[in-house]
Amino acid sequence: MPELKVSAIKEGTVIDHIPAGKGLKVIEILGLSKLSNGGSVLLAMNVPSKKLGRKDIVKVEGKFLSEEEVNKIALVAPTATVNIIRNYKVVEKFKVEVPEVIEGILKCGNPNCITNYEYVTTKFYVISKNPLKVRCHYCERTMEEEEILANL
Amino acid sequence: MEWKGRDVISIRDFSKEDIEVVLSTAERLEKEMKEKGQLEYAKGKILATLFFEPSTRTRLSFESAMHRLGGSVIGFAEASTSSVKKGESLRDTIKTVEQYSDVIVIRHPKEGAARLAAEVADIPVINAGDGSNQHPTQTLLDLYTIKKEFGTIDGLKIGLLGDLKYGRTVHSLAEALAFYDVELYLISPELLRMPKHIVEELRERGMKIVETTKLEEVIGELDVLYVTRIQKERFPDEQEYLKVKGSYQVNLKILENVKDSLRIMHPLPRVDEIHPEVDKTKHAIYFKQVFNGVPVRMALLALVLGVI
User: Fold this and answer.
1) Which of A92, B25, B48, B207 could pair with B101 as two cysteines, CB 3.0-4.6 Å apart?
2) Where on this chain does Zn(2+) bind (chain A)?
C-alpha cells in the first residue's frame, strides 16, 4: 500500500474509511476545528481505497474519542472505522454504529415541525438501522435515508 | 404509571392499561356528574387553555370539563389576542402561563408544539391538537363512545371512511384500536389510502385489516362506521373530487342494508359526507360522541391534576 501523504500521529484517534467528501462534515459534527488541547487535526480527502474506491481520513492528535462520541458521525459516515493510537501503534479499533437516539445533529425535514421555529435541540429515535429510518421526537414524522442526509 | 403531573401528548405514549384507566375514570365521572350536577374535584385549580388555532368543540369541552370539576379556566382562543402576535416564543409563553395555572391545554398549528410545551413546563400539559400530528383526547373520546355503545371494544368490526391518508384522527384511532381485538375496514378513494407504513405496523401488531374503495360492499358487515371529511384540496382537479365525493356520502339509501346495531361516528365538523337525514336514525351517534368529550376530558384533567 502506498504511504499516506499525511504524517502518522503519535497519540490520538484516526477515523478511517469515511466516504469521500464527508471528511469536513465529520470534523464539523465532532467539533474538531476547535480542539482545545493544541493538537493538530489532519484531513486527507479523496484517498484511494480498496474498500470504498475513494475515501477521506481524519486524524486527531492528542485526543482519544470514545465510541459514543464517534457514533455521532454514523449518519454521514456509516462505513467509518476508528483507530485509537498510542505511541504510533493501534491499540484499539472499532466501527461506528448508528446510535438509538440522535440529538442535535439532524434537522427535522418536516417544514411544519416546531423544531424549525423554536430554540430547541432536535431529537430523533432510530426505528430502523438498515435501512435507516428515524422518528422525530417532536412532530413524530419519520425520515428515511435520503431525507436524513439532506437534513444533516 | 403515575398519573399526577403526567403530560398527555401522543396516543403513542399510552399503554392499553392507561387507556382503560381513562375510560373507567370517565365512566365514573359521568355517573357522578349526572347524580350531583356539579363536582368539586378540581376546586381551587386553574386550567389554562392556549388555542393558537381556532376550535369549537375541543376548547369548549375542555373548559366545560374543568367547570364541571369545580375548577376555573383562563386562556385565549386565538393567538392574535396574545403576546404571540408580538413575536413571543412558545417557550416564553408557556413559561409565563405556568405561573398562573395548574394545568395547560394547548392547540398549536405546528407539529411537535405540545411536546415542546410539555418539556418547558413543570405543570402537566395536554395536547389538544398539534398541526396534523396528534389529537389524543379525540381518540380517547372515540374509544369511550364505542365502549359505551357496545359495552366492549373487543370483537367489533370497525370501518374508517374518508381521508385515511392525511387524517390525524383516523391514524391515532387505528393505532389505539390495535390494542383491542377488532377487525378494521379501511374505506377510502385510492388517492387517500392509509399510508402503507401505518397499515404494516397495524398488521404486525396482529390486527385484521380489510382495505377497500367501495363502501357499499362492506357497510353491511360493520358495527361501527367512523366517517371523516374528504377535503377538496387533496385532489388534483375538481372533477376527480366530485366523482369521489358522491360515492362516499352516507345517506338513507346506503343504510338500507346495514346491521341494526350499526353506529355511525364522526369527529366533526362535517360538510356533506353524512346527509342530515341520517341524524334522526338510531345509527347516528356523532352528537353523543360530542357529549362524551366532556367526561373524557374531565377524567384526563382530574388524573393529571392528581385530584381523583
Assistant:
1) B48
2) 108, 113, 136, 139
